[in-house]
Design goal:
The structure holds two protein chains of two kinds. By secondary structure, chain A is of the alpha+beta class. Chain A contains seven helices and eleven strands. In chain B, helix 6 (162-180) runs antiparallel to helix 10. Classes of the chains: A alpha+beta, B mainly alpha. Chains A and B meet through strand 3, strand 4, strand 5, helix 2 and helix 3 of A and helix 3, helix 8, strand 1 and helix 9 of B.
Amino acid sequence: MTELPNSTERKMGLVIDLDTCVGCHACVISCKGWNTENYGAPLSDQNPYGGDPSGTFLNRVHSYEVQPADGHAQLIHFPKSCLHCEDAPCVTVCPTGASYKRAEDGIVLVNEDHCIGCGLCAWSCPYGARELDLAEGVMKKCTLCVDRIYNENLPEVDRIPSCVRTCPAGARHFGDLGDPDSDVSKLVAERGGMDLMPELGTKPVNKYLPPRPKDQIEEQIDILAPLLAPVAEEPQGFMGWLDKALDKLPGGAN
Amino acid sequence: MHPAPSVIIFTTLSGLGFGLLFFLGLGQPAVTGTVAFVFYAIAFGLACGGLLASTFHLGHPERAWRALTQWKTSWLSREGVCAVGALIVMGFYALGAVFMDSQWTLLGWIGAALSLATVFTTSMIYTQLKTIPRWNMELTPAMFLSFSLAGGALLAGAESVAPWLLAIAGAVQLAYWTKGDKALENSGTSLGTATGLGDRGAVRAFEPPHTGSNYLLREFVHVVGRKHAQKLRMIAFILGFALPLMLILTPVQGIVIKHVFAALAVLSHLAGVATSRWLFFAQAEHVVGLYYGKR
């Protein structure tokens, strides 16, 4: 049923460190690889080697420039996938019951045998986490690698989502965000983890760790500089004459 | 939003069809026999044709019956239930009117209520989406319902109420456009809240995740044709409301010319509503576009 559980036993999710992410897109590729070969319909590509390639991805990395009021602009790489919201609008809008949130671990999944591919869940998701696969005609989304995290056929070190296992920078963390003593919860508390679009009331489980403040280059870094003769701020001599002469030409000074 | 023809055809035709069924259910006009057959054929043709069109955009139309199961939470499911209910009840009512020369009043009222409920639930599919501020307004159901009632009154030849309903629908349309133009700005959602980085400075989309397009951009970021929005609004308003109002208020002699005027009013209204519906989708900005620096 598409009714959301009142509460979930655990809140499994990701914590993504925007300070550490280097924007290499390795998580995108490993996600595509794992989820094409395993759970559910493969993630298809359309015209992959042609002039207008596109395909289904469950994880995409954006890059943003942040320009503070003063100081240097900063570039922030921004991986985005399903946030496994507590109040997931994509689940309740589903007319068939294909979309559901699991009571035991809070993972939001799609039963692909019941999905009619109407796309309404993708319309209701503010994060663009759901994509309709054009080859299969069903909705695809991040499963939190539900076929890895409980998979006893895999070595224990691999029982985490593919994107987390792959990340070479250690920018992605996986765990139970419902347990305040878990490593991920401590990380969120320590670093001020944030929600995306909190005003929409989706209560995302996944958290983003904001970039740490950058070092500031102070204006005076050379302790001997004040003792030296100041550099002329007004042009002197020939340059001074040229400056004045050019100001007098039509067009004036600016 | 991508203005998919299937959804525009669906909402335009079925809105008109269920509007006519509403008036027929109330006994306006109280027709029987062959005349009733023509009325019901038009109403069911529009309502069912619209519903059929809506299945064209599904990835798996053969599973569409499953959409009737989740009425507890899903407006799309509620719409399906109401539509099937309205068509069955009005189907029986039509049998009585066409073949048995009788008006089963209570059944007609239930059918009328279900027809209106179908239009309302359709509108709520769009209204519920917080991701599209232009749709997430009380004026959205007001628009769908007033259009459906105005169109239904025109088709049913309800001369006393049709001018009023057309005027109300036109006013709701203008209010919807005025309020909708400020909806995204007033929603408070921006690239700053989308990334959580807004309190650090001005956020700009620097590089998209990929060089090509994707499902999200095709479905949610539609900018083609928005530059003609104002002209299309004029066309929609004139064809949808002003011209039909003039046509039905023009005093004419003779039954034939009167029917010609009424038919022209209906066709003009249909074209106007279809244009308005195209704008409803094409102008709607989904907040996911913000992540791509688009709207």
